[in-house]
């Protein structure tokens, strides 16, 4: 197959297409220097995939959703099969001049984690096609039921495919246009995490291409060390080409509520109470957020409210500086619909939100899970989506949350007028499998804090605030962990992984000894991994 990108075809006077026996094709304009020899080497593999060097494709692979960092690869590899990816990795591993290789899901990282300076970005989306074939559901016939999904697949497509069988994965992210391989490399968290654990706690088996180019099927029973290394492993040990994910019968409807608090202790106390309840007695989904005076109308979570509610809540936020929103979801279906009012009442009655500030909606399960898409469309239409995203995600131990509120929400962010939600989501540590590479605070309950702010008017001032927040936590001795971590020194990475660091390094030496994979994470720093600011 020969891929001709429209721009280079139309505008470039130098479109180079090498065809050897109709196999691997290289498309685009050669850059002088090291890229040329690299391309010639890849070309010699005679694969059935495309290597793309046209400026538009390379430029797209040079940055990510964050629009903060930039690292230009030598080429973009569009695989036609898992086998070709394995050949590419194996080739670099065996080469006298190895090059970095970064699988790219949707590039929805915000700190360059899917970039590979002077190396090769593997555009996993090339395997997506129409989604058919690489998403296979085994429902009734399998105990337990599961879905096999390619690492490149979007969670929205996994949902659509499983729902055809009345089934669905149980642990989600807020946004579904992310890839299976991308979120499993981190953890995959949302309001269901308290109940089911992160997405990495809901995987039975993986197919992985290691940094040596070997393809390994791994699970808790077979090649367990690689299996747990890859889950939450920041893409350092292998490229996920298939994940076998737990599924269960899907509900059809969700009673979706939002409750507003002015008191932080009441808000967190209620979240903690809710995440301690059994599934039948409480919510199936629990998340929270901070609402600053002007932050509601412009964030991608506001499609829930009618205009009048937004005015009331914003007025309240202006009065108190900030208010807090507890969000719950109770799943139901045709059979349980008659009792949903009563069930919800028994959950909400004991909560300490502000009287008169309870809002509810009934939506389909699909609509509920895909709720952020609507917000995205709204921001897209206003030109507020493709802007810099200096996001900061942290995991904070429960015992330090009141200090965090005082020091961050009520102090550093007091006059925060930026666009984008600030999430506060309680989680149970016992739902995280400690054998995975993911690290979490050392307390039974901790909070995921997501400062998902957009740099509509520039991002450096927001980044300075992020740094101030981290300094505040360090100064106060709050032993936080970053989620989707971003560090620039070995000492910080060592601190991040804590007791897991030695194992992390051993596993790197075992599965990717030449440090080829996902150099953009900048853990095992080498010349592959350098970024520049945009
Ligand atoms: P990429 O950004 O392309 O890649 C992420 C990392 O994984 C890179 O290092 C890359 O090299 C590697 N990688 C990609 N594919 C593979 C693969 N197949 N095998 C191995 N490694 C691979 N996260 C949450 O947990 N919960 C949320 O609710 C949530 N909401 C989000 C909402 C938005 C709008 C955005 C932009 C991000 C959100 N995220 C959330 C973060 C998201 O999980 C990360 O950005 C993650 O990296 C997934 O994005 P991606 O699939 O585009 O992966």
Q: Mind explaining what this structure looks like?
A:
The chain is an alpha+beta fold. 30% of the residues lie in helices and 22% in strands. The protein has helices at 6-11, 34-43, 55-60, 82-94, 155-163, 180-184, 193-196, 224-230, 264-276, 307-320, 340-348, 365-369, 371-381, 401-412, 460-476, 490-497, 501-511; strands at 25-27, 50-52, 69-70, 75-78, 101-104, 120-123, 135-138, 146-150, 167-169, 203-210, 215-219, 238-249, 253-261, 285-292, 322-332, 358-364, 392-397, 422-428, 445-451, 481-482, 532-533. The longest helix is centred in the last third of the chain and has 17 residues, at 460-476. The radius of gyration is 23 Å and the shape is globular. The model is unreliable at 1-23 (pLDDT under 50). The structure holds flavin-adenine dinucleotide. The site of flavin-adenine dinucleotide (FAD) has 35 residues, from strand 5, helix 6 and strand 12.
Could you name the key traits of this structure?
single chain; 534 residues; alpha+beta; 8-stranded antiparallel β-sheet; 6-stranded antiparallel β-sheet; globular; binds flavin-adenine dinucleotide
* Proportion in helices: 25-40%
Structural class: alpha+beta
Number of beta strands: 21
> Strand fraction band?
15-25%
Bound molecules: flavin-adenine dinucleotide
Mean pLDDT over the residues: 90
- Low-pLDDT stretches: 1-23
Helical segment count: 17
Radius of gyration: 23 Å
Q: In this structure, how is the largest beta sheet organized? A: 8 strands, antiparallel
In whole angstroms, how far apart are the ends?
35 Å
The strands making up the biggest β-sheet line up spatially as 16-13-15-14-18-19-17-20
Inertia-based shape: globular
